[in-house]
User: Fold these one by one.
Assistant:
Number 1:
Amino acid sequence: MAQKLRPAHPLETRVLLQGFDEPSSWTIDVYEKKLGGYAGARKAVAMAPDAIITEVKNSGLRGLGGAGFPAGMKWSFIPKNSGKPVYLVCNADEGEPGTFKDRQIMEHMPHRLVDGMISAASAIGSETGYIYVRCELRLAIERLEKAIEEAYAKGYLGKNIFGSGRNFDLTVHPGAGSYICGEETALIESLEGDRGQPRLKPPFPAVSGAFGCPTVVNNVATLANVPGILLNGAEWFLKLGQNTPRSAGTFVYSVSGDVKNPGFYELPLGTNLNVLLNEVCGGPLPGRKFKACYPGGSSSPLLTADEFDVKMDFDSLAAKGTMLGSGAVIVLDDRRSIPEVCMRTARFYAHESCGQCVPCREGTKWTYLMIKRLVKGEGTQADIDKALQACANMAGKTICVLSDACAMPVTSMIKKFRAEFEALARPASEVTPAVPKVSGQLAELMAAVRERQTR
Amino acid sequence: MAYEFSPETEKKFQWLLTRYPKKDAVLIPILHKVQSEIGWLSPESMEYVAGRLGLSPARVREVASFYTFFRLDRKGKYVLQVCQTMSCYLRGSDEIVAKLQQLLGIQAGETSADGLFSIEKVECLASCSTAPVMQVNDWDFHEELDLERVEKIVALLKQGRGGHACYEKRVADGGVA
Ligand SMILES: Cc1cc2nc3c(=O)[nH]c(=O)nc-3n(C[C@H](O)[C@H](O)[C@H](O)COP(=O)(O)O)c2cc1C
Ligand code: FES
């Protein structure tokens, strides 16, 4: 079921979500006739590729999948005339806890994504595109497949699109339940029919991505922004945000947790977090006070309530030691125990580690176990430091940044709310020390070794 | 039990082969189709898919077992997937799971003896602002759940209503709690 629609908040500027509340907004008729859709793609197929890239570069459009890499620059890395096909892959794996912006676009505005993909494909000279969607998002998949079918019927996809002489084929590719497949190289492995284990970079996808060919991977919202930029110009996009290339356009913030009106809100990039939470989202639940929040998905370091006076953009949040990430604000109020929240966060990453790098596979698990011991009243002061140590030992030491995604929030929680963790610690004499649990052959082997040592 | 593609799955398979430059890429989409057809990935079905794609059965199992969505064991007719991730936890997903366990007499991860229900705890379903959420059979989405609605949903499913592959149909059948 699609999420309930609500009218735009007065502070919202709906660009990506323009036409969202139109009945049947997901059909080609409404998108094209009522909302002026596909004008961007029509324009793009007639433009020189470099002109598209320049316009997008000038607009300041940054990747909205989490890292904020400038989209136009990423496209410019695609080698010209490599003799190989170029692939355009849309990252619609949306798995970062707290994030639901892409799903909204796909369910309500699937054509805007197709429109954007045609435009991006024209820029990079791609004739084949894939939308890698989380398989759990059934309605999104159904609407995208229907949208693609409609676009083929109109000649907007397939051979000689819009009569331009260009070709572009587009296919929806379902994921299969794995957070790590949102990482672009894992996504490519998965698209190719393998286990979703990230690849070492370099080579970067722009040189050797899907099927060994130059590939651009972009997030849903990044691509859906392109038609607007081509139609209205870079200047227009810059002004939607803070009028700087580092902070341009609007941003769809996903807000959830302990807040009065959770939801998705399209606001100028760089809207103050206090404004977002207190004015747009109606403040805390009745009788409650804000305690902290993750500003950019569960991978982002926590901000305490007295740090909420911050602009929600890439640079301002980085300056505060956290990140915008996917723009998913998860709010915690004064009822919440930070160690409990921390344990849940660590558990997620321990579960989702793909297991190929030892520091991540073991580090995420140890972090989770240490915090769990504390929460269960079986942990000591030393366990707090062991968790911190495990975090320090995995962050930055692995193929992808999943280990960092676990280490960053956990470390921030322990640093900012250490007293809460310490309150749970018990004297070492009262608890059994943590030892790795082993079973089967390894346990037998260890028992044998121990026996030999005591003999 | 021997397995081969139904005519519909065969059609999808042939179409998929035209969409990718390499055959291997068809593997995950076709496993989805097989699972939606027979409810899980039986060893025979994986072996059959391997044969059709010219892959070793071990390779197919290796891939299938990596992804949590693929079911290598038979599950209940209705698989109740409750999101347990942060935003849902904050809005009471633990109580939802406890309620289901109490109503069905099974633990999360188990299947009821009559083969009707399985409870699964899953990670964020990208519906965090309408937490807590539960998905029935990978499709039927229930948002802003409370314990009363959980009871109603289970009661409807026990009568064989709800759990359809389409929300509109569910409304038409009165399967909406
Ligand atoms: C563990 C992990 C998970 C990720 N998950 C997603 C995701 O669900 N969706 C997404 O768009 N990007 C995700 N990313 C970021 C992608 O690797 C990549 O940077 C992004 O798709 C590029 O698109 P953009 O430049 O348009 O943002 C993830 C990265 C990591 C390390
Ligand atoms: S946390 Fe449950 S849907 Fe996102």
Number 2:
Amino acid sequence: MLCESCNKNPATVFVRRTVNGVTTEAHLCEECAKERSEWNIVVGPTLSFPDFSLGNLFASLLEQHPASAGVSIGGGMEPCSGCGLTYADFRQQGRLGCARCYTTFREPLQPLIRRLQGDVQHVGKVPRRHKGRARLRHNLDALRRRLKEAIAREAFEEAAQLRDQIKLAEDKLKEGQQ
Amino acid sequence: MLDPEQIFTRADSAWLNEGPDGDVVISTRIRLARNLADLPFPSRASDEELEQALVRLKSASEYLPEAKRYRLLEMGRLSPLEHQVLIEKHLVSREHVQNPKKRALVLRDDEAVSIMINEEDHERLQVLLPGLNLDQAWQLANRLDDSLERRLEYAFDDELGFLTCCPTNLGSGLRASVMLHLPALVLSKQANQVLGTLAQFGLVIRGLYGEGTQALGNFFQVSNQLTLNRSEEDLIHNLHALTSQVIDQERAARGRLYEELGDRLPDMVWRAYGILTNARLLSGGEAMQLLSNVRLGVNLNLLPPIKLAKLNRLLVITQPGFIQRVAGGSLQSSERDRKRASLVKEQLLTKNNHSEVE
Ligand SMILES: [Zn+2]
Ligand SMILES: [Zn+2]
């Protein structure tokens, strides 16, 4: 609804005045309402603000996604073996179909998730069943850091030992995945 | 045990009470999204798979702490008006009732805990408390999540965290939000700027009824946008810190309002009170805005003291679904406006705080 006075801005204020027993009402924009301080505000200004929704944000990210440059990404990809979703379905709906979709479409999804969420490393709560794995992962990260340091200060013997430990930890982590 | 009739005819959910910082914050919500590892997400699941998810979640919920306080409602057995009341009480989403088949809600007797089954994700656990109560809401949600997880295998990935149907919920699956009443920031035209700043800090701002709804009555929902790469505690503390700033700004703006508006301020809130206690027809939008003005007047001690809990309840009582369900069936819009006017008048003019509307 447009302001009844200027017919330009959206009406956000509802005002009323009574003169000699005759009541007049009007829907006005804030500027026009201000100019008529003799009117009484019945309904104060309501705020309109750009409608921000995560859904919209996500849709626009999907559009900018590299795949829109051609059919290359996802075009030659098999549908998800868990739920039958194709990558084209995902691009259209913005929704995944099952947990396995995240493995099936991992490659094209990674940059998208990165843009959406900033980075791709969960640091929150871990289900009990995964807690052992989370600890392994944590250890692995620490070992890799130590390896870097060892190489930096040219402690090659220590680095070799660390490499062995890292290999072991990686194998253990892989086992768990099966 | 929860009498289902009361869910639809009484506005006494826990979140409607007056909570901490209740002059600005109506309620606090924590929501966790979870999926079962071995079933397709609801949008890709067959009826049989939806049934499996429903059965598993239902039986896991039977082992929740204080399990006797919960009741399962099947969306398929409820009327469209009852769906609408659940939406108006913030207990389910619009999407959850669009296709009610195999969709359900597990609800605690005080309506502070609700679990949507087979919404976009298999499980959406929600804790909804009055006032600014983020820590307590998170602790409760965390405890209930632990309990459910003991009996369910959730879809989880080391890097992506909890796997959700939409990538905007990945990681913690956590959406924390607060419902704010910011009339003074709106009246003094600072709201856009204050809320714009929040957006820069990774928060999302919406109206009273979620995405795509207008900020009717100066009520705003503020929640975290990102869900991955941050611990639940970080997400919550970030929201808490920024919300505290907005509360300070709103209170400061309230303090300056009389200077800015002069006599128009008491006039505005008394007029709102006058209309609400005398009108014979009241539309939903008008009721919401007038209730906002009355709430401001009460908080500034310009109006006689009315319990904030009563004003909170009126937010639900004046919703179209609730009015019609209490009346026993669908009503023409003019009839609804008449009913709304009489309900509001009755509530504002009764001294006690009982909330039964029948
Ligand atoms: Zn105008
Ligand atoms: Zn899939």
